[in-house]
Amino acid sequence: MDSAILSLLGAFLLSILGLFAFIWSLRKGLLVENPKAASAIFVQGEIGHAEDPALDPARQHQLKAAAAEPGDTDHPPSAGELADRLAADRSSAFPVFMFIAFACMWLLFGSIAGLVASLKLHWPDFLVSEAWMTFGRIRTVHLTVVLYGWITNAELGIIIWLMPRLLRTPLIGNMWIMLGGALVNIAIASGIGAIGSGWTDGLEYLEMPWQIGIFFAAGMICIIGPVMTTLVRRKVESLYVTTWYHTAALLWITMLFIVGKIPGVHFGVEQATMNWWYGHNVLGLWFTPVAVGAIYYFLPKIIARPIRSYNLSILGFWTLAFFYAQVGGHHLVGGPVPGWLVTLSIVQSMMMIVPVLAFSINMGLTMKGRMRLGLYSPTLRFMMFGGAMYFLSSLQGSFEALRSVQQVAHFTHFTVAHAHLGAYGFVTMVLFGAIYFMMPRILYWEWPFPRLISLHFWLAAIGVTIYFVGLTYGGWLQGLAMLDASRPFMDSVNVTLPWLRWRSVGGSLMVASHVVFVFHFLAMALRFGPNRAGAALFTQQPKDLEPAHGE
Amino acid sequence: MENEVKLTVGAMVTFAIAVSALVVLPYIQVSDVKPPEGLKPYTSAELRGRASYIANGCMYCHSQQPRSESFAPDAKRGWGRASVPGDYYYDSPHLLGSMRTGPDLFNVGVRQPSKDWNLGHLYQPRAYVPGSIMPSFPYLFEVKDKADPDEETLNLPPGVAPPGKVVVPKPEVLDLVKYLQSLKHEYPVLPPEPHDAAAPAAAARPAS
């Protein structure tokens, strides 16, 4: 049978299956909206009470006034349910603080390593005297620190903070989570030491030696246990979409890491396909679902309106779970791997448009007419920026997977720019927003210098824009120069130089924003600045503060 | 859909499908790949050099996967024919690479066989390729007043070595250059077989 008939038959079967899925969803009532499930993040009477804990009382009031809509009631939120939330927050405060503190430390360290690596590409004789300083090691240290140290710690913190909150159940097994966090961070620190000294497994994203990886995997398992136990013993009936994303992501990253790290199994080109299956899934099944889940919680929470369509969010979850897991092969377009595998990955990359549109339409409709609230709340601004960059980077990624685009973009800085649009423009910005929201609820202390939050936002946003635009253009020129056999290879190096310098400019702004952020975090943790929210970590809240907590 | 069992099982099923497609099937498909006749296993010096290549992160700027002429002019640049799975028979870990900040190195041993050139280029790339952005690797060399009798010194272009000194390569860089010189994949191979034409292609194999 030739391939044309096979593909026609495949398309026919697929459309029949699609039809059955449609009929099934009609019977199940999935096409009818489900406002109750969408409102699961609010206690009774809370809708309409806009909330951004990062704001001081005066600005908080402005936000609330701006968010008011006709039809809102003046009823205070239900005190009993708020007490549940308070208990949930208190149960997770210490582990979450630990993860966020580690994350902030790694962020600063990792982004400085990144800036040094960026400078080295246009100052090749800068810092070359010692082996650990060489580009190949500093670049890898940067990647390991920001991926595992910053994003993974921050995402674990967010998962562990949101899980009890959404389940309205105190966190069970704190000590296991703390142990897990310690193991994960020991693995990251040792992994960095190993890479700096030249001990590496040599696979991109999987450089951490497998002997050290054991600690990472053990740490993740210690964290999954309590999270799953809390999930099973929850008080709420239905699970909000954020819980879907977060629970699944936690299981995925652990499985991914274990499969990717098993020593002695992978070989030759199979190792390469595994490598990129892992490399893309770290983004697709770990960074993305946790950040998307966080937007699904924080964005509606700040504006105090439920998301527009709950069912669309579930559609987004399942399509992401199915399609994203299979896109990794597009990193090997043109390489010595089976052609069907690359084609499969390109098809699934295009299919990723489905979950991205499901998310974007949902968020767009939720924010419709409420965009101006971003002016009042910097936390919301981070979330909106992150959501928009998710849309852009995923769309870019889908088209980048096509063979015709890869022909130019593959092996160039274009890909590096794309990776930063996703990991920074989208994921990191969402993490910043979430941390600004969470910290006052964890430490019972306000951000001491609210203006620094805006400064942080603008430095980071302008920095990543310069980084992305410059490097995308430079990378494209590089690709065109490499494709033209009449031009010497050095042309492809020379055309990128101005843009590599712009990358360092953008990177410097990003590092500056991190200095502001980490300073602010330390000032808060060390209790500098005016005390407005009262009571310290781990002390009982005075009764009269409780309603204020849920506002 | 409120059920955590559905969530966990569903998430694991989609994950398992992806593992089957991107890890298990390629494993089965390439597990019986044989090394091409022209490919030699690495010597132990070359393997030590390969370890240096990995430890210093060379693969983050240099790919080792020339592509077919229909896709990119890699062959015209002297990077060699498109690679096939068998070429990587002795490679662990794989070093396919994802960037071409520098040129592809799969056939650098053919293109640049000179030991002196490779050593000097690692010591100071800009002495050989003006405008290169490859880092220099001074830590792989020793700068001395005078070489010991049993040591070799670098033949560098004038003005590159520090005045009045000699540059002596450390053993690890000698191994690294041996590895680079060993990267030759010129021997002929059949083009990758179309899937359903596997039988006739296998029959035609002795012809190569």
Distance between the termini of chain A: 65 Å
Arithmetic mean pLDDT of chain A: 90
Query: Main β-sheet of chain A, in a few words?
Result: none
| Strand segment tally of chain B | 2
Assigned CATH superfamily of chain B: Cytochrome c-like domain
Number of strands of chain A: 0
Structural class of chain B: mainly alpha
Q: How many domains make up the coordinates of chain B?
A: 1
3D shape of chain B: elongated
Give an account of the 3D structure.
The complex is a heterodimer of chains A (551) and B (208). Chain A is built from 19 helices and no strands. By secondary structure, chain A is mainly α. Chain B is mainly alpha-helical and 208 residues long. Chain B has one domain: Cytochrome Bc1 Complex, Chain D, domain 2. In chain B, 34% of the residues lie in helices and 4% in strands. Chain B contains six helices and two strands; from the N terminus they run H-H-H-H-E-E-H-H. Chain B has helices at residues 4-30, 44-55, 108-111, 115-123, 171-182, 198-204; strands spanning 141-144, 166-169. In chain B, strands 1-2 form a two-stranded antiparallel sheet. In chain B, helix 2 crosses helix 5 (171-182) and helix 4 (115-123) packs across helix 5. Chain B is elongated and about 75 Å long. The termini of chain B are far apart. Chains A and B meet through helix 4, helix 5, helix 8, helix 9 and helix 10 of A and helix 1 of B.
